[in-house]
Amino acid sequence: MIIKQFNGGSMANTYLIKENNKTFVRKIVENNNVKLGKDKLNEQRNWLLNINNLLPNIFPNILNYNNNGYDMEYIDNITLRDYIFKYNKINYKLIDNSIDYLIKINNLHKLKNIDKQYIKKEHVNKMFKRININNTYIQKLINYDYLIINNHKYKNIKLLLNENLDNFEPEYFNMSHGDYTFQNILTDGQNIRLIDPRGTEYNSLYYDVSKLLQSTEGKYDLLFDNNYKCIYKDNNINYQIFKYVNIFNDINNYIKLKFNSLLDNDWYKKSLFYEGSHFISMMPFRYKENLDITVLCYCIGIILLNKCLEDNNG
What we know:
The protein has helices spanning 35-54, 80-87, 92-106, 118-130, 136-142, 157-160, 205-216, 245-262, 267-281, 283-287, 291-313, and strands spanning 2-6, 13-19, 22-28, 62-66, 69-73, 78-79, 110-112, 146-149, 152-155, 172-175, 185-187, 192-194, 202-203, 228-233, 236-241. With 314 residues, the protein is α+β, with helices and mostly antiparallel strands.
């Protein structure tokens, strides 16, 4: 019996199922023609089976699977984002555990980056592809040389991505979750569990770090239920996020201090680049919601890219 369907952006459907007095989660591609969706689910399933052998009790256990999908353990906890919203306070133990798990996962495997095309293929090309939205204002917006965002002047994307980006190439690729946001961290208030890995074997360590910053620094987790205002005309954009900003700023400062002691000196600059890339690459998915949040994600991405490139050139 299907209890409910979970929302998600993947090509698979995710359900909460109850059968024989057991409750579990089923991820399944129901259209037999969707090969890409099946391939992604198989990658994710194999990743979970591997990680559960290496680091038990962090991710849900796989119960059974076939070529169309898999069933896994149901963890009846709330997301770390919703925990913060509910109690309006920081639980530093949970933040520490989140950072600890991120480092443990990425330390499992390490592979030398010999291609040196990661930035171009995984970030620059994707950004230019994703901004190609069939909307008159968006096309006008991305073609300005400069944007005025909250009364500050920023280089726009084509000027930014003409700069030398070699310093953002990772030296190594690591075992990676791939979507390490507060919405994919579950908690009962004492411990955490992780869900929804991307399923690819290797990525940059900074990629997972940037996803954590996406929640805390970029404030992506706060862009919901009209918790923002975005007003724009030509290349002038003003936006505001209303609730939870101060507490997320405090969490972000704490996370940055922790990573300063754990990672190399360039971790923040590189993570900022990936974080900015995430926001811009999310545009077509948010465009399905409305134009305001699409413009807002683009502007946050532009601010982050300007910041990391200033640090890079400074």
